[in-house]
UniProtKB/TrEMBL annotation:
PANTHER family: GLUTAMATE--TRNA LIGASE, GLUTAMYL-Q TRNA(ASP) SYNTHETASE. The lineage of its organism: Bacteria, Bacillati, Bacillota, Bacilli, Bacillales. SUPFAM superfamilies: Nucleotidylyl transferase (SSF52374). It holds the Pfam family tRNA-synt_1c. This is Glutamyl-Q tRNA(Asp) synthetase. One of its GO terms (cellular component) is cytosol. Residues 2-277 form the Glutamyl/glutaminyl-tRNA synthetase class Ib catalytic domain. GO terms for biological process: glutamyl-tRNA aminoacylation; tRNA modification.
């Protein structure tokens, strides 16, 4: 069993990221498995080295550890996506050989929706209609002389995608949900969808536990696994945490960053205990070390509802 946590270093780790990391770590540790840390900085315009370092320091402060990662190395190094571009290019070449890629010349505005941020199909708007799939060789040559194309993966439009999610339950996505998707942008950036599949496969990851915002990215990733001839991991998508304003935790909830909580002098055991309690893993709010939880973890015990951090709930953490 090999689990992983794969943060994007574009902001400070917040308490919601910490919860996902803790659950992924517990899933691996409770099964006696290995835990891998991977830095997903494939979008260099959004990622910052200081934030990558801060994320690792914050997660260690929380009591998590990893057998392989950017700072400790390991058999599948490097563990930083910006150093793995060669592997993504090899996968693109394999997809190209099997006829699954095509050049797309749609405008930047049309493509804004498929930007790097892995926020799932839901945030993308209407499915890509396949405009450039039907270009004739001559039209393609004309457009190529004017601008650089992005590369799209042609999804299988005949089959629904089904999988059993260990946390979210059985899933069925309609054929070609979201349409053909970008695997390499016109500016050369590799997409999250491709990088994450190449990395999880190459690193022998057997279990992916991550936030529910990525549930609807999974059918795309499963299609990539299939096209590349690789066995997919098991997936568990856990509910997200929301601020008292009802919005998904983000930079604006600065007080809920691990760095701020740490800075306020709160003990890491208190944070872990609070996370375990709101996740349904322990019965009351009490300080606990991550290592003490590993023996008791069961994925089916983790609360299935989104967690709204009301002021009351927050007081339990910071009082
Ligand atoms: N890097 C992604 C994020 O920070 C997570 C990717 C994944 O777990 O598949 O949202």
């Amino acid at each position: 069993m090999r689990g992983r946590f794969a943060p994007t270093p574009s902001g400070l780790m917040h308490i919601g990221n910490a919860r996902t990391a803790l659950l992924a770590w517990l899933q691996a540790r409770s099964a006696g498995g290995a835990f891998v840390m991977r830095m997903e900085d494939v979008d260099l315009t959004r990622s910052r080295t200081e934030l990558a370092e801060q994320a690792l320091a914050d997660l260690r402060w929380l009591g998590l550890d990893w057998d392989e990662g950017p700072d400790v190395g390991g058999a599948y190094a490097p563990y930083t996506q910006s150093e793995r571009i060669g592997m993504y290019e090899e996968a693109l070449a394999a997809l190209e050989r099997s006829g699954r890629l095509y050049e797309c010349y749609c405008s930047r505005a049309e493509l804004a929706a498929v930007a790097s941020a892995p926020h799932g199909l839901g945030s993308e708007g209407p499915a890509y209609p396949g405009t450039c799939r039907l270009l004739t060789p001559q039209q393609r040559a004309e457009r190529r002389s004017l601008k650089m194309p992005s590369l799209r993966f042609a999804v299988d439009a005949a089959e629904s995608v089904r999988f059993d999610d260990l946390a979210a339950g059985p899933q069925t996505f309609p054929p070609a949900a979201g349409g053909d998707f970008v695997v390499k942008r016109a500016d050369g950036m590799i997409s999250y969808q491709l990088a994450v599949v190449v990395d999880d496969a190459a690193m022998g990851i057997t279990d992916v536990l991550r936030g529910e915002d990525l549930l609807d990215s999974t059918p795309r990733q499963l299609q990539l696994y299939e096209a590349l001839g690789w066995a997919p991991p098991r997936f568990a998508h856990v509910p997200l945490m929301y601020g008292s304003d009802g919005k998904r935790l983000a930079k604006r909830h600065g007080a809920l960053s691990l760095a701020a909580l740490r800075g306020s002098g709160i003990a890491p055991e208190k944070v872990v205990g609070w996370l375990a309690a709101v996740s349904g893993l322990i019965g009351k709010f009490e300080p606990v070390r991550a290592s003490e939880l590993a023996g008791h973890f069961r994925i089916d015990r983790v609360t299935k509802e989104d967690i709204l951090i009301t002021d009351d709930l927050l007081n339990r953490l910071v009082e």
